[in-house]
């Protein structure tokens, strides 16, 4: 069994929380996923010192040596105060999320607070993670329509575990759609969905965008049979057009609650092909997206 996939039966659900409006939704999606998977849940808040530190002071200029030392002491004291405030705010955020998942899902959660960079912290914790849950935008994001959080793509590209990207608000997930193109990556998505309890018992739509060639039809037949063998009854949709446009339109038309698709590729060439579609879909879809690789 490959421990880097959703098929892996060990590991924890890890929710990365910040002070954005997505915090409650991330906690809700993580609580739901932990219940579905029967997995333990961790709630994580990472304090990035650069977000609150005053930075190195420019002590050059007309200040005397004694004045420079006094100013430096004040700056150090200010950074310490800001650090304590950030830690207390983080504890409050985690406590609120912990109470939320307990009340809504009956799910206990372990809280963790770290200092450092988000991506590096997540990679450090990843060996014990089964599913990572993160918001589409962070606390410093500019909520211009279509703009993603600055760290989201970095996290998704770096992570080897499945990533559930929470929408702005949680709603009951009853119907999901797999964006399927017959590639190795999307075949892997079908395998992982079929083998995992995460989406078991939910309504399933299988979408392929393209001309409908013999190769595509054979791939769709394989995917349909695989999902049926896992107990799903997939609704088949084969639509021609531009992938990101068709996916977004079908999400609305089919009243989809969760989209499943392949994550960003790692090679430069594949990034241009897969990455651009992934990014456009994340921008346009207002539902949670489960990215698998």
Protein described:
The chain has 293 residues and is of the alpha/beta class. 43% of the residues lie in helices and 19% in strands. A ten-stranded mixed beta sheet has the order 3-2-1-4-5-10-9-6-7-8, with helices on both faces. Helix 7 (243-253) runs parallel beside helix 8. The protein has helices spanning 23-37, 65-105, 118-125, 152-158, 184-195, 214-229, 243-253, 268-284; strands at 12-17, 41-47, 109-115, 129-135, 163-166, 175-179, 203-209, 235-239, 258-262, 289-292. It is elongated. The model is unreliable at 142-146 and 265-274 (pLDDT under 50). The chain has two domains: 12-51 and 86-166, 3-Layer(aba) Sandwich (Rossmann fold); 175-292, Rossmann fold (3-Layer(aba) Sandwich).
Q: Short summary of the structure?
A:
The protein is α/β, with parallel strands linked by helices and 293 residues long.
